[in-house]
Amino acid sequence: MAIKQLTVFVENKQGTVVSVTDILAKHNINLRALSIAETQDFGILRLIVNDEETAEKLLSEAGYLIKITEVVGVKIGDAPGKLTEALRVLDENNINMEYLYAFMARTEKHAYVVIRVEDNAAAEAALVGAGFRMISEADINKL
Q1: d(CA 29, CA 121)
Q2: SS3 state at 95
Q3: Which of 13, 62, 67, 8 has its CA nearest to residue 35?
Q4: Residues 18, 45: Cα–Cα separation, whole Å
Q5: How many CB atoms lie within 10 A of CB 90?
Q6: Rounded to an integer, what distance in angstroms lies between the CA atom of residue 56 and that of residue 58?
Q7: With 70 as the cut, is the pLDDT of residue 104 above it?
Q8: pLDDT confidence tier of residue 107, bands split at 50, 70 and 90
Q9: Domains plus CATH for the chain?
Q10: 82-91, 97-106, 112-121: least confident range
Q11: 65 by DSSP, 3-state: which?
């Protein structure tokens, strides 16, 4: 049930992110979550969108280097300590987390978190076994 994430490698200069989001907006691609990590010369823009195939095609055609990565999406309670509970499950199951970020949209009682791990199936099994609900691409499309 992994979610597809677009990783876009961009120059670290003014206007680059606007260019990416403008391309997507002009083609009705809706951003569901994003994260930006940067160094002095370049940035890594991670996106969860409602149509990753079209987004990948459009951005590739515009000259961006794109990689699609499968990540785990988990629904957690929107209360102090709930993220810690989910992360503890991964830790107790010896699942290393490479990075995480939260969705921009949330429900009234829950938040959605994207987690990158080495073994999606193991992470999903551990989290489901601990009572967490996983997020599917269908869930993302409903946001």
Answers
A1: 28
A2: coil
A3: 8
A4: 12
A5: 21
A6: 6
A7: no
A8: low
A9: 3-69 (3.30.2130.10), 70-142 (3.30.2130.10)
A10: 97-106
A11: strand
